[in-house]
Amino acid sequence: MLRFCLTHSYDREKAMDPLLGQLLAPKYDAALVLLSYMISFWGALLALQCAKSMFRKDGTLDLGMTICAAASLGGIGIWSMHFLAMQAYRLTVPIAYDVVLTAASLGAAILISGIALYLAGSHGKFKVSGWLAGSLLAGVGVCVMHYMGMYAMNLRATMLLNPTIVVISIVIAIAAASAALWLAFNLTRLLHRVIAALVMALAVCSMHYVGMYAANMICTSDAPLIPLKIGGNYLDVSVYAVAGLLSLCIFWVVLGRSMDENKLVETLR
User: Fold this and answer.
1) TM segments (predicted)?
2) Higher pLDDT, 9 or 71
């Protein structure tokens, strides 16, 4: 009886093991999908709150607030959302990530987001040309980070992308980013910024999941060999650590600015 059970268990595991050349069908963890949207919304809201103070009254750039806005949008709203959403993406083979490409995607997301917000802000005065350029760059930046993150995947599969769906994902990202940036720089109330953040988070998440739909994973014999990789619970911890540390740093900068402004007001009195 014991022998039969062991044999049955072995046969079931063997049957679950994907065959060479088989198309892998993904499944998603609904809770992590929802959490990925929430973290994207949080990053977008922080970014839009910081973006309103990127330019001083004389039109000069506040570098500290610009970095905070870029880190919020790129590091939390886009990068953290992507890798949290990738944890929701389940295949029948284990998935790890190339550490170098993963880190590079974080840097690219922050840099491109900063430039996009700078262009959209247009030195504190809304301009259509700056808004269009910023929207285009923001949308492309989301896509660059997304596909860099996808190519960082290390697993027993070859990824084939559907070009039509890839183009659709890019259009979604640019269109939704343009709507969010217009709301962010034309509406001043906090409620309006919350709405803009909801739209921007929707842009990032829509682009991500449409982009994932464009990917077909074909099983191979072995995963490519890479020098450094991360996966499983270590990736979870890394995502939460990046989002948490960036949030703390941003609050520290914003709180410092607020205290300095209060001291200045008291001095002028």
Assistant:
1) 30-51, 63-89, 95-119, 131-153, 165-187, 194-214, 234-255
2) 71
pLDDT tens sequence across 180-226: 788 777 777 788 888 888 888 888 898 899 989 998 988 887 777 77
Alpha-helical runs (H) found in the chain: 2-16, 30-51, 63-70, 81-88, 99-121, 128-151, 163-186, 190-213, 233-268
CB-count exposure of residue 236 (10 Å: 0-12, 13-18, 19+) = middle
Confidence of residue 123 (pLDDT cuts 50, 70, 90): low
pLDDT at 6: 35
Identify the DSSP state of 1: -
SS3 (DSSP) at 89: strand
Position 221 scores a pLDDT of 75
- Ordered by start, the domain boundaries in the chain are 30-257
Task: Count CB atoms within 10 A of the CB of residue 181.
Answer: 29
User: Residue 36 pLDDT > 90, yes or no?
Assistant: yes
CB 202 within 8 A of CB 34: no
Cα–Cα distance list, 134 to 84, 123, 139, 178 (Å): 26, 13, 8, 8
Query: Nearest to residue 166, comparing CAs of 151, 153, 178, 154?
Result: 151
d(CA 3, CA 6): 5
**Order of strands across the sheet with 96-98?**
153-154, 96-98, 229-231
